[in-house]
């Protein structure tokens, strides 16, 4: 079996497991072709940006499993997973990816809803009378 490189990406509640193998640029997400999985989502092309940055778009096949969250969170999780897998492949690529923010985990999560509130912080409307 050919060598493969693994990277985990997380964003909001999405978790992406990315496996890179030498190939010709075929990207599948949960067994579905990349374009078909994300449909017409414009932001989806940003997920492959780490591969474009290091000119590796047609050198690797990516098999990705992603779960949780919505499509936007999944795109960002895939982006981080791809960047981490590329660094596993060649640690010299870190110098290219790090300044562009591809190796930074976005730690923002949804704040939990509190009792007595409509949302996490939105209080019921005040009524003087």
From TrEMBL:
Instruction: Provide this UniProt record's keywords sorted from A to Z.
Output: Ribonucleoprotein, Ribosomal protein, RNA-binding, rRNA-binding, tRNA-binding
GO cellular component annotations of the record: cytosolic small ribosomal subunit
Q: Where, by residue number, does the polypeptide cross the bilayer?
A: none
Instruction: Cite the SUPFAM superfamilies for this sequence.
Output: Ribosomal protein S5 domain 2-like
Biological processes annotated in GO: translation
GO function terms (MF aspect): rRNA binding; structural constituent of ribosome; tRNA binding
Q: Which Pfam families match?
A: Ribosomal_S9 (PF00380)
Q: Which InterPro entries match?
A: Ribosomal_Su5_D2-typ_SF, Ribosomal_uS9, Ribosomal_uS9_bac/plastid, Ribosomal_uS9_CS, Ribsml_uS5_D2-typ_fold_subgr
Task: List, alphabetically, the Gene3D superfamilies matched.
Answer: 3.30.230.10
Role: Part of the top of the head of the 30S subunit. The C-terminal region penetrates the head emerging in the P-site where it contacts tRNA.
Quaternary structure? Part of the 30S ribosomal subunit. Contacts proteins S7 and S10.
Please give the family membership noted in the entry. Answer: Belongs to the universal ribosomal protein uS9 family.
Q: Sorted alphabetically, which NCBIfam families does this protein's record hold?
A: PRK00132.1 (NF001099)
| Protein's UniProt name | Small ribosomal subunit protein uS9
Can you name the source organism?
Answer: Allomeiothermus silvanus (strain ATCC 700542 / DSM 9946 / NBRC 106475 / NCIMB 13440 / VI-R2) (Thermus silvanus)
Gene that produces this protein: rpsI
